[in-house]
Amino acid sequence: MRGNFIYLSLEPVTNMIYSLGISPADFLNGVPAIPNQLLLLNEESGNDVEINPHTRLQTVTGQAQVRRYLLGKHEHAVKWLDYTHSDDLDFLLPGELAELLYLAHMGTHIRTPFYAKLQNEYAFLTLRDGFYKIYYRNLADFDHVLEVSIKRHLRAMHNNRWVFARPLAISDLPHEIVLQLTQGLMDGMIVAFDQLVERHRVYVIPVRAITHPERQNTWYSQEEVYADSREVASLRYDLTTGEWALSIHDNQVFSDVADSI
Q1: pLDDT tens digit string along 211-249?
Q2: Integer CA distances (angstroms), 145 to 6, 32, 165, in order
């Protein structure tokens, strides 16, 4: 799906972020540490892939290999969990393997996809048209991923507007603004960079709330996504001072999600 925007929704019970516009590179550059080992839930090929005899699932080992794998091109949807020790895979029970296969096939969980045996921090599912489901054991890890993605989108928009200008060095978002944004995620939120306007050297980026989250599985175009949303805030970046601000137009949207995070 084309368009310079980020769509997000949160399922706080399982710490799952459903997103469009956050790339695997944003994830890798935002998490505290790149996973060292992946258990793949999809069929894959390549020199970095091995087969675990117990689970008969494929694995990728080593941070460099994991990074190369996640940034590469794939014939199949990328789906994985990280794990800590290679021996841990040998202790997975048939019921646990069945849950993993269900997660991969159905794109959703039977129960929380965090396993004491694997000590996994994430469960990562590539879905249709650039949508992702990522489960975070520690949901606070998502905050920096979101910040990295916002800065990337803004930099891309700036470079498209000012082709011959120097690359824009963007300041970090204050943590309180990231937290305010995440408070609007329950039913879905859009950071609409392609609706950005510039006013007196200040970029104003609309933040839109999803009004019909039940329709998200039927979205196939940017127009359909935006039609099911309304503007509730604006994210501002001052090009002169490098300062960020968030102006909230509808306080009800940014109510009490933080208590669930």
Answers
A1: 887 777 778 788 888 888 899 999 999 999 999 999 988
A2: 12, 9, 27
